Amino acid sequence: MSKEIVVSGIRSTGFLHIGNYFGAIRNYIKMQEEYNCYFFVADYHSLTTHPDPASLKPNVYRVLAENIACGLDPEKVALYVQSDIPEIPELYLMLNMMAYKGELEKTASFKEKARANPDNVNAGLLTYPTLMSADILIHKGKYVPVGKDQEQHLEMARNFAQRFNHRYGEMFPEPYPFNFGAELVKIPSLDGKGKMSKSENENATLYLSDSDELIRKKVMKAVSGDAPTEPNSVKPDVIENLFLLMKLVSEDDVIAKFESDYNACTIRYGDMKKQLAEDMVSFIAPIREKTIAIQEDKDNLHKIMKIGKEKARESSVRTLEQARKMMGINFYC
Ligand code: TRP
């Protein structure tokens, strides 16, 4: 039996942090063994906010390098850049004929962005969900590993797929979010306020590009409060968070020691943070160094991008030819 198809887009803006690693990338790495995976950098999507051309390019290289450094294997998956696949914008155009202004305007992400940037409510922003649908449907993707914030977009992709099938004949499977169940962990920020973030809360987020010194500084500044005075007391949220972070990168016996110190009221948060900082450094430093090495070897990076492009175009060309034929846009046969 052939493997089921998984598609996911990676934003080209912002720096990856350990929340992205444990929330998404680690799951990509597991999926690459069992599914036929198409993972790409969504550079067209980033154009909605008119990024500086001089920064777009290094951002795309960096995101690719970071994902490979984390363990994504370009030999196992199709790892490519969205704009390398001309069939995607072509399918996007077709799907736009089936996407209605009213439903696009009602999309939560559109309303949010339009409110935040009222001077830049462009058609690309409005049709962001159609482009995302084209990304998925071009490979006839069945599963899409995304967070909760993308589920509405996926629902729209299912609608567009259905409409196409209804009008022109069975063609696209309906894509569903890939659910990791209990494994989906939310990584808290170091200041006790929400999650780690690509663009906000920079001092409370550990990025995969942070230097050893910066990691130590951020972890030592993490909010902890007073040590417990009652044995076996319930942990306040900020302490729960420190333990959660420790569980990601520290050895079991180290965690057990701090757990029992906590329960005995002998815990010293300074020591705990020092340990967490060192374990974070041991985890992040090799990824950071690998990312730099991959980023600097442009020839190799170009080779990887070309291999990904070829793999992704194979199924894209096939799907688009079929779509054109079904719509009656095939005049030379
Ligand atoms: N919209 C997604 C995000 O913001 C990125 C994305 C673009 C994507 N195209 C996609 C995700 C296709 C999954 C499938 O994170």
Properties at a glance:
single chain; 333 residues; mainly alpha; Rossmann fold; Tyrosyl-Transfer RNA Synthetase; 2 domains; two-stranded parallel sheet; 5 strands; 7% strand; binds tryptophan
Summarize the structure.
With 333 residues, this protein is mainly α. The protein has 2 domains: 5-185 and 298-327, HUPs (Rossmann fold); 210-291, Tyrosyl-Transfer RNA Synthetase.
Walk me through the topology:
Layout lengths: L4 E7 L6 H17 L1 E7 H4 L6 H17 L8 E4 L5 H10 L4 H6 L1 H9 L6 H4 L1 H10 L5 E2 L6 H18 L7 E2 L34 H9 L16 H13 L2 H12 L5 H28 L1 H30 L6
Parallel strand pairs: 1-2, 2-3, 4-5
Helix pairs in contact: 3-13, 4-8, 4-14, 8-9, 10-13, 11-13
The structure holds tryptophan.
The site of tryptophan has 12 residues, from strand 1 and helix 8.
CATH superfamily of the largest domain: HUPs
At the first level of CATH, what is the class of the largest domain? Alpha Beta
In CATH, the topology of the largest domain is named Rossmann fold
Helix content estimate: 55-70%
Structure summary, number of beta strands: 5
What kind of oligomer do you see?
single chain
Number of helices, where a helix is a run of at least 4 consecutive DSSP H or I residues: 14
Structural class assignment = mainly alpha
What is the molecular shape?
elongated
Beta-strand share of residues: 5-15%
Largest sheet composition: 3 strands, parallel
List the strand order in the largest sheet. 1-2-3
Mean pLDDT: 95
Q: Any low-confidence stretches, pLDDT <50, length ≥5?
A: none
Can you list the ligands bound to this structure?
A: tryptophan
